[in-house]
């Protein structure tokens, strides 16, 4: 009887898991269709991209579209601009946000929580409200048509990342920093020698989110950049599509190359993302 009961229980669990996975697959299909169509179009010949009925599976598969795409579109110029923008924005975020989060979590001082509420309140202000004032400000500073309006603000902290790191810092036992103070360590020493080594998962999440935000940023470069030679990939491909006769197979090949880094990085770091976000929600 016990064997049969275990078998029935195993079948129930297996059935539940199979049903759950089938539901998840069904939900994922609509989200995967645009990626499938982009990759399919990237591998088609030009006549197949406009054929009716649509050709789902390209025949023949034209891998040479990727080579022609990076030669036809100034892809490497856009990629260089994007790399510089993304690299410095991540650097600014990693430098500024942990410092502010440390001051709002580990260091005790009057008005700390009130300042945190004020910082979080800025997240409720829509970007269109500040878009024109920021443009006027950066214009008077002479920063228009450069990456300064996109990079320099990251060195002053991002409210969401500050909150994320602050929540993580709150999970660190205060006894660690108190012991370091008793030993005569300064706040900067405590921050660099005690706190930072413990917050690598959270810093990884922040760096990844900043990478995705900067890599996919379209509106910011559209507002502040005027010369095509300074465009990042997100804006450069759109500008090329609007000013040239588009060969959709080459355009989709270039779009695929733009998407691949974000997909690869996500799959390589998804465990750390989940771990970092999970730890920021735990408070002892």
TrEMBL record:
UniProt family annotation: Belongs to the binding-protein-dependent transport system permease family.
Compartments, as annotated in UniProt: Cell membrane
Entry's transmembrane regions: 21-39, 84-104, 116-138, 150-169, 190-212, 248-268
Annotated Pfam families: BPD_transp_1
InterPro entries for this protein: MetI-like (IPR000515), MetI-like_sf (IPR035906)
GO annotation, cellular component aspect: plasma membrane
Membrane topology, as annotated: Multi-pass membrane protein
ABC transmembrane type-1 domain ranges (all copies): 79-269
PANTHER family referenced in this protein's UniProt entry, alphabetically: ABC TRANSPORTER PERMEASE PROTEIN MG189-RELATED-RELATED, SN-GLYCEROL-3-PHOSPHATE TRANSPORT SYSTEM PERMEASE PROTEIN UGPE
Organism: Aerophobetes bacterium
Protein name (Swiss-Prot/TrEMBL): Carbohydrate ABC transporter permease
Keyword Membrane: yes
GO BP field: transmembrane transport
Organism lineage string: Bacteria, Candidatus Aerophobota
Stored Gene3D superfamilies: MetI-like
Signal sequence residues: none
Top-level lineage group: Bacteria
Keywords: Cell membrane, Membrane, Transmembrane, Transmembrane helix, Transport
